[in-house]
Design goal:
The complex is a heterotrimer of chains A (169), B (119) and C (476). With 119 residues, chain B is mainly alpha-helical. Chain B contains three helices and no strands. With 476 residues, chain C is an all-alpha fold. In chain C, helix 6 packs antiparallel against helix 11, helix 12 runs parallel beside helix 18 and helix 13 runs parallel beside helix 17. Classes of the chains: A mainly alpha (169), B mainly alpha (119), C mainly alpha (476).
């Protein structure tokens, strides 16, 4: 049991370190890659917590698709010159240097505060297969996803289309 | 409903170890959320604000999965997380489109240049 | 069967979009008008059928998919509002938005309206989140529709605050899921305990997220920017229905069906409502931009709905829902007038506009009707809804809030009359001497909305007996 416990703890610390690297790192590309790494470690954590299907979704969509979107957005916008990066990085450290302290403070505070709280567990669920839950019990969510994807399609058409004509001018 | 009390007894025995795990995960999810909020508030670049939003959403995902694990209801938790991931992709795509359009107008990703509208 | 409210619009929309271009565009516009009219008619038909004794609620629930879908008296009032405001926005859009982009606009409008129909029929807190996201994404795209830099900036602020609100809501959903095992309203209601710190924290977090979405003080920072920089028909849609649905309706639904009103939540809702009323009313007085002033006035009216809800008795709930309906009508009317003035004169600055009434008489007179209704002047409908809210507050002993409500009405009347005098009355300046009345379809919308306001006001006892008593039965 101890082995499991330390594995969970190590994975969680790895997530926090990856998230810190994402937020603090200087260049935007490294931040996007840090986001992908955070997603990957979150996938391992989810797999350990008995949720394999959600882990696969998280890996393929968040660590894959969203990272691709961020990288393409970053590459379509201007890359700063070296002097600008250096000038900004000193200022950055001043602003972001305090973040690890804040995080440790929040973590310890939460740990101390919640030792007294107790939650009552709910009754056992009736359906244990994820696929059956999604397809038989949550129809409204499925229709909602379809509508959302349609809205995304129109969003892309409205927001990304004009740019091409402007570049042609 | 005597059987309900029986099963509650059995679950209570597993509960102590799960409770520790649960509160540790809670603390780490809160730390992740704090990192995301700090990123959104302090940053000067538009894209980094989106990355901060993403980190915050990961904290929420972690919390839902832990909730499912602790209550033995991983099926419903996974269904929720899968729907959440699909919705979030569309939001990020639209937000990236907005950021690109702002870049095309302003030629920079600096948040301080967006001061046209009076607060 | 209530799943059809969402399924049919979606499938027909996909079908209409797949048709070839020339045929598709015309059909799309008329399909949207038909859809919104159908929503209005279904809402009225529901009430008529229930009045004549056919148990419509049971008709709708006895479906195969009845597990996460629930329909009651509030639902159909909301559908009626969605139909009317979407119609207004659609008709105004025809005159404002360029020809080649109108099909995208109509598609997004139909998607948002479908999302709102889904929101009112869902009975599961996660489905609430799903449809709120749908509405939010369609409104992001709609606000930045003409890609003006002010609109993009407003959209970006809205995206950041909306996504933060979403994450807070998801955290609350996770906590409620942990204590209930399932996300449906019934399960959460059973496991909700007002003395358990965990569930009360979850409820408070959920409400915070919804306050951000609904633009209530102190989370209203995105609202004036987003409203004033969006194109005119989009502002009508936003102010009339979107912000209210994703924020206020969800709070009403949660309080009625899930949480009840424990003392902590009641005091939070009352305080937020009162502060919204005051800050909205006073901030509106110093504005120079027509739309910004109306945006702050919207925040103020949202506060009224909140204190009506927080009164805790069924009369307060009836007043809140009636004020919701009234606000949808008269705020859309005011924003339609703003867009009419903006279409013809090209500016929204109050200091510059003068004497528009001579050239645009219909706009002027309907604007008078609208502003009298907002301020609660009898016999228009706004007076009745504010009266019910004040009586409900007095009935449960919260005299301070009742006094705030009445005082803010006076302030509202003051600044809206100043607005009317500056913009519409007086002699016209030479710069705007050549303007004419707007195109007839917009005139038709103005007259229709003003007519509904006047009718609801004059025939109020009829509405009270037939529609509001169904809401009064929803005692928590």
């Amino acid at each position: 049991m101890e082995h499991q416990f330390y594995f969970h703890l190590m994975m969680l610390i790895a997530i926090i370190l990856a998230a810190l690297w994402t937020v603090i790192s200087r260049s935007l590309l490294k931040a996007a890659l840090g986001l992908a790494m955070t997603s990957a470690i979150l996938t391992i954590v989810m797999f350990k917590l008995d949720s394999p299907l959600a882990a696969v979704f998280e890996l393929s969509v968040c660590a894959g698709l969203i990272t691709a979107i961020f990288v393409s957005t970053i590459s379509l916008t201007r890359i700063m010159t070296h002097q600008e990066i250096m000038a900004q990085s000193k200022d950055r450290m001043k602003r972001f240097g305090v973040l690890p302290l804040i995080i440790i403070f929040v973590g310890v505070g939460m740990w101390l505060m919640t030792k007294k709280l107790s939650i009552t567990l709910p009754p056992q669920a009736t359906e244990t297969d994820v696929r059956k839950v999604i397809w038989n019990m949550r129809h409204l969510d499925l229709i909602g996803q379809a509508i959302m994807l349609l809205a995304g399609v129109f969003g892309v058409v409205v927001l990304f289309k004009q740019g091409k004509e402007k570049e042609d001018e | 409903m005597w059987w309900f009390y029986l099963s509650k007894e059995k679950r209570k025995k597993m509960n102590n170890e799960m409770v520790t795990i649960f509160w540790i995960y809670n603390a780490f999810a809160l730390m992740l959320f704090a990192a995301g909020v700090y990123c959104v508030v302090v940053t000067r670049s538009l894209i980094r604000a989106l990355i901060g939003l993403e980190v915050m959403t990961k904290a929420a995902t972690l919390l839902i999965i832990v909730g499912g694990y602790v209550t033995n209801n991983t099926a419903a938790a996974q269904a929720l997380v899968i729907t959440m991931i699909v919705l979030e992709v569309v939001v990020i795509v639209v937000a990236a489109g907005i950021v690109l359009n702002i870049y095309r107008h302003n030629d920079s990703l600096d948040i301080r240049k967006l001061r046209n509208l009076r607060g | 069967m209530s799943l059809l409210f969402v399924l049919i619009p979606l499938l027909v929309l996909i079908f209409v979009n797949v048709l070839p271009k020339n045929v598709g565009k015309k059909i799309l516009f008329w399909y949207a008008i038909l859809l919104f009219l159908a929503q209005v008619i279904v809402a009225i038909a529901y009430y008529l059928l229930t009045k004549y004794g056919i148990p419509c609620e049971r008709l709708v629930e006895r479906s195969l998919f009845g597990r996460s879908i629930d329909v009651d008296g509030i639902t159909f009032i909301m559908m009626f509002c969605v139909g009317i405001v979407s119609l207004a926005s659609l008709i105004v859009a025809r005159c404002v938005i360029k020809k080649e982009e109108i099909s995208n606009y109509v598609n997004l409008l139909v998607i948002a309206a479908t999302g709102m129909s889904g929101l009112v029929i869902s009975s599961d807190i996660f489905s609430l989140y799903v449809f709120i996201e749908i509405i939010a994404v369609s409104s992001f795209i709609l606000i930045s529709f003409d890609r003006d830099i002010n609109a993009l900036e407003g959209t970006f602020k809205y995206i950041i605050m909306s996504a933060a609100a979403t994450v807070i809501m998801l955290t609350a959903i996770a906590m409620l899921f942990m204590s209930a095992g399932d996300t449906s309203f019934a399960a959460v209601k059973k496991s909700f305990d007002a003395h358990n710190v965990f569930t009360i924290c979850a409820a408070a977090l959920f409400l915070c997220g919804l306050f951000i979405k609904g633009g209530l003080v102190p989370f209203h920072a995105w609202l004036p920017d987003a409203y004033s920089s969006a194109p005119a028909p989009v502002t009508i849609f936003l102010a009339g229905i979107v912000t209210k649905m994703s924020g206020i309706y969800t709070i009403i639904r949660l309080v009625v069906s899930v949480f009840g009103l424990p003392a902590q939540i009641q005091s939070v809702i009352l305080m937020v409502g009162a502060v919204s009323i005051l800050i909205g009313a006073f901030a509106a007085m110093g504005q120079n931009d027509f739309k910004r002033m109306l945006a702050y006035s919207s925040i103020s009216q949202m506060g009224y709905i909140m204190i009506g809800l927080g009164a805790g008795n069924s009369l307060g709930l009836a007043g809140a829902v009636f004020h919701f309906f009234n606000h949808a009508i008269f705020k859309s009317l005011l924003f339609v007038n703003v867009s009419a003035v903006e279409m013809r004169t090209g500016t929204r600055n109050i200091g510059e506009l003068k004497g528009v009434q001579e050239k645009m008489p219909v706009t002027g007179w309907t604007s008078v009707v609208g502003l009298l209704s907002v301020s609660g002047v009898p016999p228009l409908s706004g007076f009745w809804s504010k009266l019910i809210i004040v009586i409900a507050l007095v009935q449960c002993g919260r005299f301070g809030y009742a006094v705030i409500a009445i005082l803010a009405s006076v302030v509202t009347l003051a600044y809206l009359l100043i607005l009317q005098r500056k913009v519409f009355w007086g002699n016209v300046t030479e710069k705007y001497a050549g303007i004419k009345e707007v195109c007839p379809s917009v005139v038709f919308v103005e007259i229709m909305l003003a007519g509904i306001t006047v009718l609801c006001g004059l025939f109020f006892p009829f509405f009270y007996n037939n529609f509001l008593t169904y809401i009064k039965e929803l005692i928590f």
